[in-house]
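#lab-general

N.A. 3:47 PM
ok so I finally got the sequence cleaned up, no stray characters, all 209 residues accounted for. can someone with queue access submit it? mine expired

B.Y. 3:52 PM
send it over

N.A. 3:53 PM
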Amino acid sequence: MRATVARTAPAPDIYAGNATLGEVAIRRRQDGGYTVASSSTNEHFISADSFRYLFKYLPALKASVRFIRLRFGDDLVTRLLPTRRWQADQVTPFEQQRVLNPEPSLKALNAMRAGLEKRVPSLGQVPFDEAWAGMIDVTPDVVPVMDEVSAYPGLFLATGFSGHGFGIGPGAGRVMADMVMGRPAAHDLSRFRFNRFYDGSPMQPGPGL
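B.Y. 4:20 PM
back already:
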């Protein structure tokens, strides 16, 4: 999912903390501006895997359909026909694209502006000094994976935080450090096991939805 965020120029001190105001969210910054986001403009770029894993994602899609926009453009053919196999001496897709650094969505920026004008009129005309975007890795149940892959001993995964990584990152780091070091888990981690996607478990979206 692509999510777009912006920061405003220095603005009146309307609210000193974080606030979600319907279709727009704001957070006061130390530089005197606000970080602004829109909840209704998370974008999924249709690809081959969109169809491959459709049924696993259906529960989460139904629960969050009003927040998601499907994108078909932007090199659709390449996404529908991805490179799946390569020789050892060939350049891999992972080398071709080392960093996911997408352009901000103009639709999202327009939605933020409209949301500010509607919900916080005093910020409605404050210019955006900067905008950026990022790709959020989302699992079918919107719950991260923190586990050792049983088929590949020594391979540990901490991924799929589904937009919650900033909030639970410190705790996840502690969990993974204990796991890698072979220390007993301080919590029940069964909800975060990797094989839940393949052992017949129903995909039930977590409380974030």
